[in-house]
Design brief:
There is one protein chain. By secondary structure, the chain is of the alpha+beta class. 33% of the residues lie in helices and 22% in strands. It has nine helices and twelve strands. The protein has a six-stranded mixed sheet, with helices on both faces. A four-stranded mixed sheet has the order 3-6-4-5. The chain has a two-stranded antiparallel sheet with strand order 1-2. Helix 3 links the parallel strand 4 and strand 5. Helix 2 (62-79) runs parallel beside helix 3 (98-114) and helix 4 packs across helix 5 (183-197). The longest helix has 18 residues, at 62-79. The radius of gyration is 21 Å and the shape is globular. It starts with a helix and ends in a 21-residue tail after the last strand. The protein binds adenosine-5'-diphosphate (ADP) and magnesium ion. Adenosine-5'-diphosphate binds next to helix 1, strand 4 and strand 5. Adenosine-5'-diphosphate (ADP) is lined by residues 8, 12, 30-33, 89, 91, 119, 121-124. Mg(2+) 4 binds at residues 33, 46, 76. One of its GO terms (molecular function) is magnesium ion binding.
Length: 335
């Protein structure tokens, strides 16, 4: 039976050897009691936990899980306009499954290579039942910071990418645990699954927004929930226009109420939502073309009115949409 140290050596110590070129500023990778990196900038850091059964299905493809474990963290760096430096990986595993570890580490490294975010350390331990994955990322930032509390009245609200696919895939996967999916549902799952299991962090977009946006957030807990954080912290109110929301192509044939819930409240979305002065709208259009990422104006920031919720959504007849569940909250039974 192979032990903890063999496992680390085999799957997670690519930055240990001298032949491995370390990221800028990384002085010491996986090897010693601590890793070491240096930077002349300020450091942004963030951690996300992924727990089996809570954040991923036990039978999920380990390659995509490795990708996602890092992607959700890089998404937080993206939302701060930070440039990745390095990451740490904590793993609690009920058993050593070589195939799983090999695929997981490949998925992890593929993304860490793509965004120059080397794995420089971590911890590995046994867990009683479930897999727990904890990633910490470090990135360089400089002022002005892309914070949640800087949205201004008159700003346009933008969102990257297309919305709703991850939520639809999640609902279908839950359903498939109980019963066989219809051929249409299976096809829909094929077209939406990538968004749920293999999200792309918007690192380049985040960095480009530094000169354009007032407030930025990644909408991992759902558009309404996360945009709500910007509104609350900035003491402003959002008008959103439903017909402007970028809906994932695969969802076009679904009933309006289902699409509405997926797009407005569906979580596990690693797109950026941001507010920017109206004078930058043309520049944002040019940026979208340059990066090859759709950027859509979905609403505007208005003055907060007493007793109103933080966001009002209008349908295409300019009627207020009755608010449903806002988004994802681990400890709330309803939001
Ligand atoms: P310590 O006893 O100081 O916690 P370990 O024996 O746990 O050190 O780890 C040895 C080395 O392997 C350290 O450099 C540590 O950062 C690294 N390491 C352990 N687990 C992982 C992992 N899952 N991913 C990356 N590096 C890891
Ligand atoms: Mg340790």
């Amino acid at each position: 039976m192979r032990g903890e140290f063999d496992l680390i050596r085999q799957y997670f110590s690519r930055t240990a050897g001298e032949s491995v070129s370390l990221g800028t500023g990384v002085v010491l990778g996986v090897a010693d009691d601590c890793a070491i990196f240096s930077s002349h900038h300020q450091i942004a850091t963030s951690k996300d936990l992924l727990v089996e059964g809570q954040h991923f299905f036990s039978d999920v493809d380990p390659f995509t899980l490795g990708h996602k474990a890092l992607a959700v963290n890089l998404s937080d760096l993206a939302a701060m306009g930070a440039s990745p430096i390095a990451c740490l990986l904590g793993l609690a595993l009920p058993r050593i499954d070589e195939q799983w570890l090999s695929a997981f580490s490949k998925g992890f490294y593929q993304l860490s290579d793509k965004y120059h975010c080397p794995l420089i350390g971590g911890d590995t331990t046994k867990s009683a039942h479930d897999i727990v994955i904890s990633v910490t990322v470090f990135g360089e930032v400089s002022p002005p910071y892309l914070m949640r509390n800087k949205a201004k009245v008159g700003d346009i609200i933008w969102v990257s990418g297309a919305l709703g696919a991850a939520h639809t895939a999640l609902m279908l996967l839950f359903k498939s645990q109980e019963q066989a999916l219809s051929p249409q549902e299976s096809l829909l799952l094929v077209h939406t699954r990538q968004a749920l299991e293999c999200p792309e962090p918007r690192i380049m977009l985040g960095q480009s927004l530094k000169s354009l946006a007032n407030a930025v957030i990644d909408i991992s807990d759902g558009l309404l929930q996360d945009l709500g954080h910007i509104m609350e912290q900035s003491h402003v109110h959002a008008y959103l226009y439903e017909e402007k929301l970028p809906i994932a192509e695969a969802l076009r044939s679904l009933p309006t109420t289902e699409v509405r819930e997926a797009v407005l409240s569906g979580g596990d979305v690693y797109e950026l939502c941001f507010t920017a002065p109206a004078k930058f709208s043309e520049d944002i259009g040019i940026l979208a073309k340059h990066l090859g990422i759709p950027l859509t104006a979905i609403g505007e920031v208005v003055q907060v009115s007493k007793g109103e919720p933080t966001i009002t959504v209008f349908d295409r007849f300019h009627h207020k949409v009755k608010m449903m569940k806002k988004g994802f909250d681990h400890f709330a039974s309803s939001v």
